[in-house]
Amino acid sequence: MKWASFWVVVIACLMYHSMLYAGGKLLATPGVSQLEGSGGGGIVPWAQLSGYATEDEWSLGAFCSGAKLQDYQLDVCGAQVNFFDRLELSVAEQNFTVAVSNRVIEQSVFGAKIRLYGDVIYSDWPQLSVGLMHKSLGDSAIARALGADASQGNDVYFSASKLHLGALYGHNWFWNITARYTQANQIGLLGFGGKYASKRWHIEMSSAVFVAPQLALGFEFREKPHNLGLGESHWRNLFIAWFPMKSLNVTAAWLDLGSIAGVPSQEGLYLSLAGNF
Amino acid sequence: MGRLFGRVTGLLCIVILLNACVTPKANVSLYHQLGGEPTIERIIDSFINEIGRHPTIIQYFKEANVMHFRTGFIRHMCALLDGPCKYTGDSMVQIHTGMDITTRDFNIVVELLITAMNEAGVSHVLQNQILARMAPLRSEIIKI
């Protein structure tokens, strides 16, 4: 149902967008929408701000993503607004379903990201941004039961990214590195902090090759804290992103999220659909 | 899963290596890979047509001499792509000073050039390398 209504919105907006479209960036250069709502890849926030707005434009983005794992399912819908390619504000609503008990954990993520320097293609140094995510769980019962200290928390991150034109045998090559300071267990779905918490920065990275102007293949890695002593794994994915036009992108990925809440080998398919207006 | 990633990574390596075998040798200039002067002329002619059709971009060319622009850009592109030409025309800064070109309009022009290269049948791999040569000029073109 959520998907159906999302499609209606996408189609309505596609019809409308030609009138006031903010499309000053080149195709695919803003990337896609990340699970926590930020412009990025699938699991890593990137230095690019979501949407195609340049310095005298603003733009809106909306997305829904789903990940089906062996024992869990994660559904996310969210939106971003990009002001003048300087500030991105985002919101994401996550529903994490535990298949065995059919319990749903809800989390809201509010994000802000500021572009500090550069342009992902043109500047001498990589584009650099700083971001903040405020996360809060709808219900902290499961998080508390697993030993988390809090039901809300903040992530701070710095991201650097660069698109190298024609760098890989004539194909455009993209990379992003993000350093994130976080206390979140499984991105916050299992609460924040815990008995084994150690405060430090975590590294996340993404890389992609454009095999065609509209098609990118890549991978991502996200280092995770293990505050709960449940063997939380680092996350990985292999993705393919398709940009048929600036106002629409579709991303599919194979996720390897490892152990979640003590249940090992959580792998599965990820699908994301996003519109930019 | 670790094994799957290992395999996929291995496969990617093989694809990249195979790709390396069929990639033209680096010592052949972009100018020659492109097909030399005739292709450049076709690109620039398409580009001029595209500009003429674009309501925003044509405004920047109101006082331009199209033939002068055509000759200059053909020479400049030839030189940028390591062809047998020397660009002796006005500098990018001289040409664009006072135009106050925005990031948005600059990117629109890049898109028009990409359209022109598509129309001239230039492969996407070659297009990327051509754009890589032109990209450093951006700071001499916009917002001045």
From TrEMBL, chain B:
Primary gene name: glbN
Cited InterPro entries: Globin-like_sf (IPR009050), Globin/Proto (IPR012292), Hemoglobin_trunc (IPR001486)
Top-rank taxon, per record: Bacteria
Protein name per its UniProtKB record: Hemoglobin
Keywords in alphabetical order: Heme, Iron, Metal-binding, Transport
